[in-house]
Amino acid sequence: MLHYDIPSSLEADIRRFEQDLADFRAGRLHETAFTAKRVKMGVYLERNYTTYMFRIRCAGGILSPQQLEAAGELARKYGEARVHVTTRAELQLHGIQEEDIVMLLRLLREAGLSCLGGGGNTIRNIVSNPDSGISPQEVFDVQPCAVALTSRMAAEPDSWELPRKIKTAFTSKTEDAAFVLAQDIGFIACLDEKGRQGYQVYAGGGLGAKPKAAVLLQDFLPEEQVYHAVRAIKNIFHQHGNRKNKHRNRIKFLIHKDMGEAAFCKLYKEELARVLAQGPPDLQIVPIDNSANCNRSIALEPLAAPAPGFALWQERHVMAQKQDGLYAVRLPLLLGDLSPDDCLRLTEFLQPFSENTLRCGTDQNLYLRNIPQRFLPNLHKLLTACTTLSTKPPLYSKLVPCTGAQTCQVGINRPRPAAQAVFKALDQADFPLPDDVQIRLSGCPNSCANHWLGDLAFYGRVRHIQGRAVPTYNVLGNGGSQQGQLQVAEEVG
Q1: What DSSP designation does 248 have?
Q2: Alpha helix segments (H runs only) across 298-405
Q3: Helix (H, G, I), strand (E, B) or coil at 84
Q4: N or C, where is the chain less crowded by C-beta within 10 Å?
Q5: In angstroms, rounded to a whole number, what is the distance separating the alpha carbons of residues 230 and 301?
Q6: CA–CA distance from 340 to each of 71, 91, 386 (Å)?
Q7: Burial tier of 381 (Cβ tally within 10 Å: 0-12, 13-18, 19+)
Q8: Do 54 and 110 contact (CB within 8 A), yes or no?
């Protein structure tokens, strides 16, 4: 199965939210109470207090070309005319008017998309490395498990009423290719001595103002028990999570501050045994076929000769898959944005290649897969006609800003204009630009751009200088995943 099952209760949830919105607009529901209901539906009020942002779940980062086109058309008709790829490998629409909220939720549902759990104290989007299933270096494909887990979690009512949010990630490689150790719950693919597929299980990671690396809970968990492990952690969080202090209510505080690592690990093993004894069904993990395009007839005529610039583009952005003859392509986005026209161009091009061709990355870029080598010149020609894809060196698409104070109510600085100023300076640089440097800019300490994971990073802070509140940036460096370990960036100024 390529996509997760949207919960059958979603239409009832939308009807309930429609009534909540009507009560709020009529003054029968207090703003604070409405906010709690709204963010759980993935709908955020923007900084202008007039328009809204929608956050659309993409389990495992998976998105079909048709869904991308649908999001682009909704952005064109009702929003800011841009589709934004987030650092949680999902989509955002900005500039939505209040009177259009409920209609858009239903239109997204028709496209097989949902915003439920896009915010609030919920199970957030479950992510994986975007090359899972196609990387020659992987242990096995983890995306089917991420999709199956999303379907199960989305169907459970208590997934939307947690003490605080839970972020989960899978990586298909032995090294941490999805920043698993920075998540509330993380799974690293491995095999046991019999060759069975399973995971190392981690919990208690997180970024924000107090970054922590996750701790190892289990050396090997059979893949069919992934739901049981998450259910056990969710039970513990429901029972022991801090519901009073939002600054201390993530799983990382439960492990690193309140209970301690040893006590939490012991409780996890006990709760996992209880869950297994109760006998909930295993996840229905359906493999994703990434080899279909090896031999399938594709209704497209290959270009006779590549366009100028093809060789450099191929060197920068094209990777050979483990499926012989198929290739993956990074689509570098400036600031993570794609125009509705480019959404349509990509959809029309990808249609002959099936719907299993597109992934969102946590670096705010898109990734194509399963493209036969003979069609790479066609793809390159198509991408040169796109207006929101970067044709500049890879460093430009490796600069990841959050939305910041332009739209976010808690933002201090404006990282997107700051990033554009950096681009302008880089355009005039008289030195070679490195390809492998990740730059991250967060507008506040909340780490929406994952600044603790950057080679070079910045996050917004307010300082009082001569009696005035001044927005500034703290400077960090040397963060990321190094030799399988989470390296939290160091503050250097």
Answers
A1: S
A2: 310-317, 340-350, 376-384, 394-397
A3: strand
A4: C
A5: 47
A6: 8, 13, 10
A7: middle
A8: no
- What is residue 5's predicted lDDT score, i.e. its pLDDT? 96
User: Strands 366-372, 358-360: parallel, antiparallel or unpaired by DSSP?
Assistant: antiparallel
Question: What pLDDT shows up at residue 176?
Answer: 84
Residue with tokens 């028709």: 110
- Say if residues 158 and 121 touch (Cβ distance below 8 Å): no
How many CB atoms neighbour CB 344 within 10 A? 16
* CA angle at 168 for the pair 149 and 172, rounded to the nearest 5°: 80
Structure token pair of residue 425: 């300076």
What six digits make up the tokens of 475? Answer: 């400077």
| Tokens 């739209």, residue located | 407
DSSP 125: -
The helix (run of H) or strand (run of E) holding residue 94 is strand 91-97
> What is the Cα–Cα distance from 475 to 459, expressed in whole angstroms?
7
| Length of the chain counted residue by residue | 493
Show the low-confidence residues of the chain (pLDDT under 70).
483
Two tokens at 488?
A: 């939290």
Pairing outcome for strands 480-482 and 485-487 = antiparallel
Q: How far apart are CA 23 and CA 21, in angstroms?
A: 5
The b-or-e profile of 144-177 (16+ CB within 10 A means b, else e) is bbbbbbbbbbbeeeebbebbbbbbbbbbbbeebb
C-alpha dist (Å) from residue 254 to 97, 124, 223, 239: 39, 19, 26, 11
308 CB-near residues (< 8 Å, 6+ apart): none
Q: What is the DSSP letter of 212?
A: B
Phi and psi angles of residue 387, each rounded to the nearest 5 degrees, phi first: -100, -15
Rg of the Cα atoms in the chain: 22
Residue 341 tokens read as 């026209």
Distance CA 369, CA 293 (A): 10
Distance from C-alpha of 35 to C-alpha of 49, rounded to nearest angstrom = 12
Q: pLDDT digit string (tens) for 327-365?
A: 999 999 989 999 999 999 999 999 999 999 999 999 999
Residue 428 has a pLDDT of: 93
- Evaluated on CA atoms 322, 125, 348, 106, the torsion sign reads positive
Tell me which residue has tokens 């060197």.
Answer: 315
Burial class (CB in 10 A: 0-12, 13-18, 19+), 230: buried
